[in-house]
Specification:
Radius of gyration: 28 Å
CATH topology of one domain: Alpha-Beta Plaits
Order of helices and strands: EHEEHEEEH
CATH superfamily of one domain: RRM (RNA recognition motif) domain
Number of strands: 6
Largest sheet: 4 strands, antiparallel
Distance between the termini: 89 Å
Helix content: 40-55%
């Protein structure tokens, strides 16, 4: 038996359609789409095949292809204890294994400090771009006034 993970699925994907897409390549033993606790689709799912050859054929067919307007990635699932498996980075993933640090209180305080730093950086970046935009708008207005004065010099009076 072989399992595949299918990433970047389109929003409207239903389990029946997901199963039927892969059923053309062999006997599907199981399939599931993943959702958050709130019921929001996380845009990935798993499909299991009875034979390894069926899974390989489905992977070759669907990997880097389009489902609706989403380009999907299909990979072979790795075992839970496999050290070559990438660490989960999603905010929805649970802490697992030796990748997490043992001191959760110090890491949570440092992560909140990092989050505060990111917010400050984001705010300063927004203010920077707002000032750049305002400056550009002011510059364009100044150019407009100068061009208007050059085009119609008799209509303007200057006070010195």
């Amino acid at each position: 038996m072989s399992r595949l993970i299918v990433k970047n699925l389109p929003d409207g994907m239903k389990e029946e359609r997901f199963r039927s897409m892969f059923a053309a390549f062999g006997t599907v033993t199981d399939c599931s789409l993943k959702f958050t606790k709130d019921g929001k689709f996380r845009k990935f799912g798993f499909v299991g095949f009875k034979a390894e050859e069926d899974a390989d054929g489905a992977q070759k067919h669907f990997n880097r292809s389009f489902v609706d307007t989403s380009r999907v990635t299909v990979e072979t699932c790795k075992a839970f204890g496999d050290p070559t498996k990438a660490r989960a980075w999603s905010k929805h993933s649970q802490s697992s294994g030796p990748d997490k640090s043992s001191s959760s209180s110090s890491s949570s305080s440092s992560s909140s400090a990092a989050a505060a730093g990111k917010k400050v950086l984001l705010l300063s970046s927004r203010l920077y771009w707002l000032s750049r935009y305002a400056h550009a708008e002011e510059h364009m207005y100044t150019l407009y006034v100068h061009m208007h004065i050059l085009a119609y010099p008799s209509t303007h009076t200057y006070i010195m």
